[in-house]
Design a protein that fits this description.
Layout (H helix, E strand, L loop, with lengths): L13 E2 L2 H9 L8 E5 L7 H7 L4 E4 L5 H7 L5 E4 L14 E6 L5 H9 L5 E9 H7 L10 H9 E9 L4 E2 L6 E8 L10 H13 L5 H4 L6 H6 L13 H15 L1
Helix pairs in contact: 4-6, 6-10, 7-10
Bound molecules: S-adenosylmethionine.
The site of S-adenosylmethionine has 23 residues, from strand 1 and strand 3.
Length: about 260
């Protein structure tokens, strides 16, 4: 079968480096009760080894032209779904989930937020992403990469960068560096936000003007004295706060709004 031309609008950069493929697949170890889902299987670089690991693999691919090619090598026990993963209803898949994929970079952030909302049903996510996004997901306080995405992601998941991947590992080569990241949803929250939309609002205010002090950037949400009551210096900047600090602030805002 002729390989179809890679489509830029679908973020198609196909993995071609066997060593990288092996390294990624080695990290994917669902137990038999957990469903394994691959997002964006493409031409099957990861799908082929994953299907030998799990013949009941589920794949979700947007590009209609790739569907017959996937069906041609996948066992009958696998499920091939054509469509946009952002519209996919994960509730229809039973049990706990392992979700993996070399993701189209243009949908990675909205997709992550949708997956975070599934909470503890997801046991593990292993994704190839733009390296810059992985650095933001895994960032620590007082670092330039630490921001809204970091706090939201680490609120939901334990995050570990697994490997850096150069553009030469793909065909065609992307313009940016990539990295593989593991996101493991916390099975019990370390600290619980009363209202996630308020946490999100607080983070947008705090990091929207990240060079300002908290008492300025958060003036419309929480007072300087309420920050002090939480043990947070109102003259500090957003990037100095831990995830737990932000959740505690958000919970004060939530309670003030009741
Ligand atoms: N897994 C393959 C590999 O590693 O070679 C392909 C990875 S490529 C970066 C991303 C894949 O996601 C493409 O096959 C693309 O068609 C598919 N895709 C793009 N947008 C999608 C969406 N919204 N939902 C599902 N699949 C999508």
């Amino acid at each position: 079968m002729m390989a179809t031309k890679a489509k830029r609008r679908f973020g198609q950069n196909f993995l071609q480096d066997p060593q990288i493929i092996d390294q990624i697949v080695a990290c994917i170890q669902p137990n038999p009760e957990q469903s394994l889902i691959e997002i964006g299987p493409g031409r099957g670089a990861l799908t082929k080894p994953l299907a030998t690991l799990r013949s009941d693999l589920i794949v979700i691919e947007l590009d209609r032209d790739l569907i017959p090619k996937l069906q041609a090598f996948l066992p009958a026990t696998a499920t091939v779904r054509q469509g946009d993963v952002l519209d996919f209803d994960f509730a229809e898949i039973p049990g706990d989930l392992w979700i993996v994929g070399n993701l189209p970079y243009n949908i990675s952030t909205p997709l992550l937020f949708r997956l975070f909302a599934l909470g503890q049903r997801i046991k593990s996510m292993i994704f190839m992403l733009q390296k810059e996004v992985v650095n933001r997901l895994a960032a620590v306080p007082n670092h330039k990469d630490y921001g809204r995405l970091t706090v939201m992601a680490q609120y939901h998941c334990h995050i570990e960068k697994l490997l850096d991947v150069p553009p030469t590992a793909f065909d065609p080569a992307p313009k940016v560096d990539s990295a593989v990241v593991s996101l493991q949803p916390h099975q019990r929250p370390n600290i619980e936000a009363d209202d996630l939309s308020i946490l999100s609002e607080l983070l947008t205010a705090a990091f929207g003007q990240r060079r300002k002090t908290l008492k300025n950037s958060l003036a419309n949400l929480i007072s300087a004295s309420a920050l002090e009551d939480l043990g947070i210096n109102p003259s500090a900047r957003a990037e100095t706060l831990s995830v737990a600090d932000f959740v505690r602030c958000a919970n004060v805002v939530s309670r003030n709004r009741l």
